[in-house]
Design goal:
- This protein is α/β, with parallel strands linked by helices.
- It folds into three domains: about 30-155, N-utilizing Substance Protein B Homolog, Chain A; about 220-260; about 260-484, 3-Layer(aba) Sandwich (Rossmann fold), CATH 3.40.50.
- The chain contains 21 helices and twelve strands.
- Strands 5, 6, 7, 8, 9, 10, 11 and 12 form an eight-stranded mixed β-sheet that branches. The chain has a four-stranded antiparallel β-sheet with strand order 2-3-1-4.
- Helix 15 (about 300-310) links the parallel strand 5 (about 290-295) and strand 6 (about 315-320).
């Protein structure tokens, strides 16, 4: 594992405290002044833990607060996001180095220990710098006693590399296959089990290690050119292999420096999400093609692309969203993209009781609320927040939403059900229940409308399942339903 080399104020610069926690000549200035880089990373971990923040949303605000950019910003991003991704692995290692349960370690100290462990085992930071800077941070933010404890623990961690530690804390054991994978790849055991079952549903259970490893690789930034507003050729990066509208930026690419993004004619959107909009827009319909609805439109990325596609045909999209702040994001995305020409409006509503007449909508997108276990590359904290109870609640919601989507789509129209999760309870089982419960509803083949997307057969005939390790996308599930 490796990460960006620390910048001017990183492990090798003036934030290193390079003579160790107790060495002579150590500056008397507080770590806030000396090491804003690691202080920023610690702030991200706290916001994610205490405020239920999302790493990718918390980072920009923290970087701005500490006035960090360039190499320093890259270092903070890798340190914070990498620590959260590998938290399960690092906790197993820390547990082997501490003589009490981790739950009895003060939360602020545990955050710092995880940061230090990631520097030691997952980044190219010299051991003395990783230890001394973490100790300084704990001394300033907690207490001298906690700093001494931190020093002792991290010195134990530094005695081995990651491979050596995994051999001790997660030896291969045929009797506990799931437990081994959970520690090695830093996923909760129940998540490993569900992802393996999802792969087994497409005949590829042996790929679970590859999928888990892909979840721990930070994704590259993907852009989308909104049709009628921007051309893909004007966006930097390599064309996406499957979406006709996307490009993939190289490492370190800044979407904020792309004129079309700044002007709202393009946006940042995973290729898998682009393909959801493409699939609905390209699905053939019989007769009228004027009224499109996105039943769960927040935060607005798919709605903005669909609105642009609708506008090209003289159709209009209505975005429906339950939560006020997400409904506002949909409206903002449409305004920013100037795609409002294809957006008839945003309705704040509970889409389990959608305000649309029976058989009235030509195209319906139901990108259902889900566990998000297909987007762990971008939302690493989701793996530690979601529970089996959450899954059960979400499945009930998904079934209710799909029943309502079936009600409003007209015969001859197109209904696309999508989730950012490959978990079978949220994909095949929800769709199968809808087919069983509703006479006259059938499953159509969505694959032809997407063109050549290899190795993407879903768990039900005609469905599509994308994968991070196969397609470098989020693990989007797509099913096209028709009503006779």
């Amino acid at each position: 594992m490796s990460g960006p080399r620390p910048g001017r104020r990183g492990a090798g610069g003036r934030g290193a405290g390079g003579r160790g926690a107790g060495g002579r000549g150590r500056s008397t200035r507080p770590p806030r002044d000396r090491d804003p880089v690691r202080l920023a990373a610690l702030s991200v971990l706290r916001a994610v833990r205490v405020e239920d923040g999302y790493t990718n949303l918390v980072l920009p605000a923290v970087l701005a607060q500490h006035e960090l950019s360039g190499r320093d910003a890259a270092f903070v991003t890798e340190l914070a996001a990498g620590t959260i991704r590998r938290q399960g692995t690092y906790d197993a290692i820390l547990a082997a180095c501490i003589d009490r349960p981790l739950r009895k370690v003060e939360s602020k100290v545990l955050d710092a220990l995880r940061l230090g462990t990631h520097q030691l085992l997952g980044m190219r930071v010299p051991a003395h710098a990783a230890i001394s800077t973490t100790v300084d941070l704990v001394r300033a933010k907690v207490s001298p006693g906690a700093a001494g404890f931190t020093n002792a623990v991290l010195r134990k961690v530094s005695a081995r590399d990651l491979t050596g530690w995994l051999a001790e804390v997660a030896p291969e054991d045929a009797t506990d296959h799931l437990g081994h994978l959970a520690v090695v790849h830093s996923h909760p055991r129940w998540v490993v089990e569900r992802l393996e079952q999802a792969l087994d549903g497409v005949g590829a259970a042996e790929e679970v290690g590859d999928l888990l490893a892909a979840d721990n690789r930070a994704p590259r930034v993907t852009l989308v050119a909104r049709p009628g507003l921007a051309e893909r050729d004007e966006l930097p990066g390599e064309p996406t292999p499957y979406s006709p509208f996307g490009t993939v930026l190289g490492t370190g690419g800044d979407p904020g420096a792309v004129p079309a993004v700044v002007q709202g004619r393009a946006g940042v959107q995973d290729e898998g999400s682009q393909l959801v909009a493409v699939a609905l827009a390209q699905a053939p319909v019989d007769g009228r093609d004027e009224r499109w609805v996105d039943l769960c439109a927040g935060p607005g990325g798919k709605a903005a692309l669909l609105a642009a596609l609708a506008a090209e045909r003289g159709a209009h999209l209505v975005g429906a969203e339950l939560h006020d702040h997400r409904a506002k994001l949909v409206a903002r995305a449409a305004r920013a993209s100037k795609g409002a020409v294809g957006l008839a409006g945003v309705v704040q509503t509970d889409s389990t009781h959608a305000p649309f007449a029976d058989d009235s909508i030509d195209r319906v997108l139901l990108d259902a609320p889900c566990t998000g276990l297909g987007a762990l590359r971008r939302r690493p904290e989701a793996r530690w927040r979601r529970t089996v109870a959450d899954l059960e609640d979400l499945v009930a919601l998904q079934r209710a939403l799909l029943a309502e989507a079936v009600r409003v789509v007209r015969p001859g129209g197109a209904l696309l059900y999508a989730t950012c999760s490959p978990v079978l309870e949220e994909t095949a089982q929800v769709v199968s229940a809808a087919l069983a419960d509703t006479p006259g509803v059938r499953l159509d083949d969505v694959r032809p409308v997407l063109g050549e997307v290899p190795d993407a057969d879903g768990p039900l005939p005609g469905t599509v399942q994308l994968w991070p390790h196969r397609h470098s996308t989020d693990a989007m599930f797509l099913a096209l339903l028709r009503k006779d």
